[in-house]
């Protein structure tokens, strides 16, 4: 694998050694960002990102359960057509949101599978490190920023 690209993230010198003493479940984003580049995708970072992805997955599954309950509660018949239209629009919006979360859930599961296979943190197209900062912002990222920009440019030029 290629060595990690030096990070452009401002590292907090006060947190520089926190990662050495804290277990993965107690690390914060700042602690992981302060880690030296030589620790990129070490076992500790992988455990940290696995935990981050697992928490995100659990949160989405809880939201899905709340949506089901919410839709069941709002099945009362409303005589006013305007009120009924408002309720139906709220339901449609909630279902679209859950559909986006369902797609994100699939990406989370794929990211966890990449952690298991040892590919997490590296671009699928180029094999270069994605970078801690990008993974903090989007833990499901599978492409480096440059590769993602190229893909989006191609999509814009040639369509989906």
State mean pLDDT (0 to 100 scale). Answer: 84
| Rounded radius of gyration (Å) | 20 Å
Shape: extended
Beta strands, count: 0
Which percent range fits the helix content? 55-70%
- State the end-to-end distance: 31 Å
Q: What is the number of helical segments per DSSP (H or I, 4+ residues)?
A: 6
Helix/sheet category: mainly alpha
Q: Could you tell me the strand content as a percent range?
A: under 5%
Unreliable sequence segments: 5-9
Biggest sheet layout: none
- What is the H/E string? HHHHHH
Question: Secondary structure elements and their pairing?
Answer:
Elements: H1 18-21, H2 29-33, H3 43-73, H4 81-117, H5 132-137, H6 145-158
Helix pairs in contact: 3-4
Task: Give structural attributes.
single chain, about 160 residues, mainly alpha, 6 helices, about 60% helix
